[in-house]
Amino acid sequence: MRNLEAEMFNRKAADPKNKPNEIINALTLQYGQKIADIGAGGGYFALRFAEAVGKGGRVFAVDTNLKFL
Q1: What distance in Å separates the CA atoms of residue 20 and residue 1, rounded to the nearest whole number?
Q2: Which pLDDT score, from 0 to 100, does residue 1 have?
Q3: CB crowding 9-19: b at 16 or more within 10 Å, else e
Q4: Which residue, 55, 58, 27, 60, is CA-closest to 43?
Q5: Whose CB has fewer CB within 10 Å in the chain, the N or C terminal residue?
Q6: Helix or strand holding residue 36 (H, E)
Q7: Quick one: pLDDT at residue 69?
Q8: Mean pLDDT, to the nearest integer, of 63-69?
Q9: Measured at the alpha carbon of residue 12, what is the angle toward residues 59 and 5, in degrees to the nearest 5?
Q10: Residue 69, SS3 per DSSP
Q11: Are 27 and 48 in contact (CB under 8 A)?
């Protein structure tokens, strides 16, 4: 089932004017790290974090809206 509100959050997060690549680079995530995405919204950054930490790492996505998780 599609969640249009979550998709809207992902579009905003991915917008180049919000500099998502710079955010990811500034975190200097490494393989195997654990990271929490507080206010994960549609999961845009949680998925990017997962790519960065790889199978050896963990991403914890937390949001107050259960529909997003």
Answers
A1: 26
A2: 60
A3: bbeebeeeeee
A4: 60
A5: N
A6: strand 34-38
A7: 72
A8: 83
A9: 80
A10: coil
A11: no
Nearest to 47 by CA among 2, 13, 15, 4: 13
Looking at the predicted structure, is the pLDDT value of residue 67 above 90?
no
Each residue of 12-46: pLDDT tens digit?
999 999 999 999 999 999 999 999 999 998 999 99
CA dihedral 68, 35, 59, 44 (to 10 degrees): 50
Identify the domain containing residue 43 by its residue range: 4-68
Provide the residue count of the chain: 69
Task: Locate all alpha helices (DSSP H) within the chain, ordered by sequence.
Answer: 4-14, 20-27, 44-53
Cα four-point dihedral sign 36, 47, 2, 7: positive
pLDDT of residue 14: 92
Cβ(37)–Cβ(46) under 8 Å?
Answer: yes
